[in-house]
Design a protein that fits this description.
Radius of gyration: 37 Å
Shape: elongated
Number of domains: 4
Oligomer: single chain
Helix content: under 10%
Largest sheet: 21 strands, mixed
Structural class: mainly beta
Strand content: over 45%
Number of strands: 31
Length: 621
């Protein structure tokens, strides 16, 4: 069918108008953009860095949508110092096809003769400390999810690069010269840019040449290449002097082995991929705090990388092995570096984790012989994973097994011969009281939907065969309570119903010494919880906890009671209740039924030697 002439004329006019508009836009950009870059653009960059940033000349090449900067310069810390960075030329070209799809993709980026100058002024201090402090002082971004950063840079080429490092404390200079770097792409976007480069890294470090291995990996409909890098036995101790002094740690030893491969793959209708694989090994790593106290040591760390894609927030590891790690955890000064808003969650997976002969110390708590074995796992958690662990605390041992999945957590543990006084720094008693005892028990923990909010309310803890030996509670060096042995066959804590259900409790030879002074104050008063301040906010009302006890059995008990709060002219009371035998039937709180009890004991006055006076005795049943 023949198109009517008016319609054809209209289409031609529209096409001509569009072409004229695009030509005008390109002309405006060609004339205005270089001036803006050289003026306002450099002023904004100088304000951001706190150092003068300048260029000799800027060009815009409309036929390839390229911006070319000649003579880029960032000044040094002072006017009489050499520049921090100079670049003979920066050439960045945009992809026209990507612009038509509403995305800015850099088709090529060429950096010609960049020269970077750095100087170490003293241990942990550099001539770029002002830049670190400037960026660290920026206010934190509110904790809102950051949008996904989408970018694509293709055909990255750095030629004739040079890095000069002036190590003034040791009066030594290092030079990285003839640096050549080529990368096919760094991208998170699907695009249709022709890859022209193979990955390459080469140069001379203090006159010693190095060159990475690069190989093309041809696959059907793929553009693939690999950049390999190996390093063996790098001594890390000399590098410790180059860490910034603001860090809360110091590197004092270690050796590093690297065997890495960086794979570039571009497949049809998929975003290009950059994958890091290989292995990292650390030997005899040692970190200390700034005061020289130990912080972390590791005999060996084997970290195999199977599929690490940081641009896609993916980290895949093989079987991770950690041998003889020791951690001394102490308060670490807060970092001045502000964190940004969190982005999309990282996806982390590993074939397994094995920790052998570990040690952990913090606030008088020392755990050793730590063994940990974790099966295949991934985060976010999607499938069940198994964890087995054991450790030693003095003469006590703890073994545990756990299976966790998005639907449920099931864990079992067994504790043997724990000296409870080892936890005194973590479980302080009021009034300076001191508790010593040996504890053994078995525990089971179950939680439904452990990763969902409110998991603690859905937890259920069960203790079995709880055994306490040689318990002793003292206050101001005076014994208040001693128990030769205590046994509880079962206990169950259910936060959802706010209930505590106990089995039968058996106490062997409990001895209590209670007293009241002339003012009516009990010797137990320092153990009572402090009264809340009148100005303290009243907590929201919650249902009270319920207690159930299947039974209580006391054998060979004893109670010493002294009471000085008596009327004038009456001798203070000094009473001994022993031996005491007590049996209680089922008990509930709040009480729901009468309590059945059987009690038998002897009553006697206490003599001057704190022993019962036989002639004053009587019995009670």
């Amino acid at each position: 069918m023949t198109v009517p002439r008016p319609s054809l004329r209209t289409a031609l006019w529209a096409l001509a108008a569009l072409s004229a508009l695009l030509t005008l836009a390109l002309l405006v950009v060609t004339l205005a953009l270089p001036g803006w870059i050289a003026g306002s653009g450099m002023a904004l960059a100088s304000q951001a860095l706190g150092r003068q940033v300048s260029i000799e000349q800027a060009h815009f090449q409309p036929w390839r949508l390229a911006v070319v900067l000649d003579g880029l310069r960032i000044d040094g810390p002072a006017a009489d110092r050499p520049p921090l960075l100079t670049l003979t030329r920066v050439d960045a070209a945009l992809s026209l096809r990507s612009l038509l799809h509403g995305r800015a993709v850099i088709e090529s980026l060429a950096l010609t003769r960049p020269e970077l100058r750095l100087a170490r002024l003293a241990d942990g201090h550099y001539d770029i400390d002002d830049l670190w402090e400037r960026f660290a002082a920026k206010p934190a971004v509110p904790d809102e999810p950051a949008p996904e950063v989408e970018f694509a840079v293709y055909n990255i080429e750095l030629t004739e690069g040079r890095v000069l490092f002036d190590d003034r404390p040791v009066q030594r200079q290092h030079e990285l010269a003839d640096l050549q770097l080529s990368l096919p792409f760094v991208s998170t976007l699907e695009s249709h840019v022709k890859v022209k480069l193979q990955p390459q890294l080469s140069g001379k470090l203090d006159g010693v040449a190095f060159d990475s291995r690069a190989e093309a990996l041809p696959f059907e409909d793929d553009v693939s290449a690999r950049l390999s890098f190996k390093l063996a036995g790098l001594d890390l101790a000399p590098l410790g002097a180059y860490l910034p002094a603001s860090l809360p740690l110091r590197l004092t030893g270690g050796r590093l082995d690297l065997d890495l491969a960086l794979d570039f793959a571009e497949r049809p209708r998929q975003p290009p991929g950059v994958k890091l694989s290989g292995g990292v090994q650390l030997h005899e790593l040692a970190l200390t705090q700034p005061d020289g106290k130990p912080l972390l040591s590791v005999q060996r760390l084997n970290l195999p990388l199977t599929d690490a894609q940081p641009l896609r927030r993916q980290l895949g590891f093989g079987q991770v092995e950690l041998a003889s790690p020791s951690v001394w955890l102490r308060p670490i000064p807060a970092s001045r570096v502000s964190g940004g808003a969190p982005g999309a969650p990282w996806q982390i997976s590993l074939a397994g984790l094995r920790v052998s002969d570990g040690r952990f110390a913090m606030r008088d708590l020392e755990l050793d012989a730590i063994q940990l074995k974790l099966g295949a796992a991934a985060w976010p958690l999607r499938a069940p994973t198994q964890l087995d662990a054991s450790l030693r605390l003095g003469d006590a041992t703890l073994t545990a097994q756990a299976k966790v999945s998005p639907e449920a957590l099931q864990a079992e543990a067994e504790l043997q011969r724990l000296a409870i006084e080892r936890l005194a720094a973590w479980l302080p008693l009021p009034g300076g009281a001191r508790l010593t005892a040996g504890v053994s028990t078995k525990a089971t923990l179950s939680v439904k939907d452990p990763l969902a909010a409110g998991a603690a309310e859905r937890a259920r803890l069960t203790l079995r065969d709880l055994q306490i030996d040689d318990a002793r509670l003292t206050l101001a060096a005076m014994p208040l309570l001693t128990v030769a042995g205590a046994q509880l066959d079962q206990a169950e804590v259910d936060p959802a119903s706010r209930s505590l259900r106990l089995g039968t409790l058996k106490l062997a030879a409990p001895r209590a010494q209670l007293a009241r002074d002339g003012g009516g104050r009990l010797n137990l008063a320092p153990l009572w919880p402090a009264e809340p301040a009148a100005s303290a906010p009243t907590p929201a009302a919650r249902p009270a906890w319920k207690l159930q006890l299947a039974g209580l059995q006391v054998e060979r008990g004893a109670l010493r009671w002294r009471d000085a709060a008596v009327p004038a002219g009456v001798a203070p009371v000094a009473l001994a209740v022993e031996p005491l035998r007590l049996q209680l039937g089922p008990l509930a709180w709040p009480a729901a039924a009468p309590l059945q009890a059987q009690l038998s004991t002897q009553l006697a006055t206490l003599g001057a030697n704190n022993q019962p006076v036989a002639a004053s005795g009587g019995s009670l049943q």
